[in-house]
Amino acid sequence: MMGDRGVHTLDVVNWALKLGPPSSVEATCCGMSPQVSPLSSIVTFRFPARVDLPPVKVTWYEGTRPPRPEEMDPDMRWPAEGGALFKGSKGKLICGIYAESPKLLPLSRHMEYKRPAPSLPRIPGRSHELDWVRAIKTGGQANASFEYSGPLTELCLLGNVAKRVDGRIEWDAANLKVTNSEEANRLVHPPYRNGWSL
Questions:
Q1: pLDDT for the residue 117
Q2: Which residue stretches of the chain have pLDDT < 70?
Q3: Is 161 within the bounds of a domain?
Q4: What CATH code is carried by the domain that includes residue 69?
Q5: Which secondary-structure segment (H or E) carries 63?
Q6: Number of structural domains the chain divides into
Q7: Does 102 sit behind a cis peptide bond, omega within 30 degrees of 0 on the bond before it?
Q8: Cβ density class 152-190: b for 16+ within 10 Å, e for less
Q9: Buried-most residue among 14, 33, 97, 148 (CB within 10 A)?
């Protein structure tokens, strides 16, 4: 699941918090096998301080719902396909899988909030596929260029590596290496059959 929906769900988290590579990733899984995704898992990413931001922890819940925040109204439901919950120093914000329908919690606080005017460029038609085509045709840059989407994909794949070893991995992004698990490194750099290479 993380290899598919992870980049969509974690995109807004990655962008808003300027994450960069994690220093460690820890996973706990139920029902894991080499062939299929686990029945459920909790993956915890830890990121060092970035620019003007302190260290941060990001937790991914898969196959089970995260703990319900007490600020969530009793009749409010989690977004149907999943989403993100930001815990800030002044409150909490929830949004859907594509960062749609952001809401402050509790909803009474959301109703009082006056949203600022849009200041970031918008993708025409709200389609990242067509934005990619537009970039090709115009020679411009896509909103989710490989410079941005490559590291985001790496983040999700590291979550999958941690799930496969069902434990904690420490990541050396500069050398693309797990520093505390040879089992995990074999997943990052799998051996190729004779005659094949990348």
A1: 92
A2: none
A3: yes
A4: 3.30.360
A5: none
A6: 1
A7: no
A8: bebbbbbbbbbbbbebbbbbeeeeeebeebeebbebbee
A9: 14
